[in-house]
Structure prediction request, 237 residues.
Amino acid sequence: MTAISSANNAALLILQQTNASLLPNKQQAGKSAADTIAAIANGVSSQTSAVKAQASSAINNALLDVKQSNDGIVSSALDFLDSGNFKTSDAGVTDVIKKLINDDGNKFASLVKAEKAKNPSISDDNAIANAIQRLIRDNRSKFGNGEFVIGFQLGNGGAIISNIEDKNGNSTSKTLAAGLKTAQSSLIEAGMIISRSDGSNTDELKMASAMLTNSNFGKALNDVAAWNDKWRDAFGF
Prediction:
């Protein structure tokens, strides 16, 4: 049995009084000082182990919840890709997207969750569609060199048409959008000239009129709309 020196008597007394609740009264009455300390130590150790076990269980449950959530997102995305709600101008694109998702489902799920965090009201299929576009652009080298078009039909009746750029970053939709932006800028500038003119500077007004004519804003706007309509029709959206 472990000996208790007289120097520790005061500490032992305090320890016994402070931790009396850790041992049943009947056990306290028949135990030596050393046995009491051992029992208290064992009790504390047992409580610590229980807390650790509880924390470990909570962590495991949380990880399981995350895994189940991620697995659900991956499953929904793969189902979306196999449905008639996803279309592409390049038949090989779908298999590459599926492989990327299957290779790192957690990463893809994080992209979807980021979309939901950024816009809590976004629908699940819209968040998945946005995440797929991001996934493609983050892994552009794994696709072909040329541009291609993908489309998503959403449950709310809307649709997303996305033109993925070629390996050099060029695409038809980007060119059309740049043309529309230039035409819009000319239109705005001409409008500002006319609005601030008092009519006395006829040369300035003539220049503004020429800018309006040459801006081709109407044509540029129609070209963008026609491109979108073309792919909506092609995809059956």
User: Anything to note?
Assistant: The CA atoms of residues 175 and 228 lie 13 Å apart. Residues 63-164 form one domain. DSSP finds nine helices and three strands in the chain.
